[in-house]
Design brief:
Layout lengths: L2 H8 L8 H14 L3 E5 L5 H13 L3 E7 L9 H8 L5 E6 L3 H9 L7 E6 L5 H14 E9 L10 H5 L1 H5 L3 H5 L2 H12 L3 E6 L4 E5 L3
Parallel strand pairs: 1-2, 1-4, 2-3, 4-5
Antiparallel strand pairs: 5-7, 6-7
Helix pairs in contact: 1-3, 2-3, 3-4, 5-6, 6-10
The chain binds S-adenosylmethionine.
Amino acid sequence: MTKFDLVTELFPDVPYMKLGQAQKLRELIIAEGAEDIIEVGFYQGKSSSYIAAILEDQGKGHLSTFDKSSAQNHSPNIENLLEKTGLGHRVTPYYCKRSYTWELQRLISADERPQFDFCYFDGGHTWDTSGFGVILIDMLLRPGGVILLDDMDWSISKSPHYKKNPKLSKQYDQDEQDAAPVRLIWDTILPHFGYEQVAEYPSEGWGLARKPL
Ligand SMILES: C[S@@+](CC[C@H](N)C(=O)[O-])C[C@H]1O[C@@H](n2cnc3c(N)ncnc32)[C@H](O)[C@@H]1O
């Protein structure tokens, strides 16, 4: 059995990444020949496990993935998933005290700045966090590398989390609540940096953009 199928079999009820998304992701990672992968937002580690499985099934590559320190408290958490699948050697999870934006700063300022060829961006969809986040990711991406944006149509006003906590929404103007920040990044920030809009995958909620050479 492939590791990809093992992840599907072992964790049918673990959110978030769905099988259809994982199959599309596998197609994209293989087409790109991506080996150095970075992921923003791992939650319980389902998408990270799929990415690790795709790499393991090809016998090469590594994933660096970021979430808040509180992600350790999930049951199961990313460590449990990686242990069960024997995929731990393919993944470095980074636990961020406040935000991945600071953790990415540490990578950018490291003596040897790591370089990635594929980013799966699935964390913190507000304008400030994701907008700044993709700029930091750009600094870590090789020329010709790609960013796969999740939740292209997410908005504060549609988010169940914000609906449950109306006080949180109140700090935003109504037009910011109604905006789709990830799509704004796709339409404004990425073209500003010369990225090509390669494709949208509406059934996955994704947009794939390529950094110029
Ligand atoms: C939708 S979940 C990720 C799901 C995961 N990619 C999957 O498909 O299995 C988004 C994650 O982003 C994380 N996140 C949001 N803002 C963040 C921030 N500023 N720093 C670190 N993690 C953040 C959340 O804690 C959450 O676990």
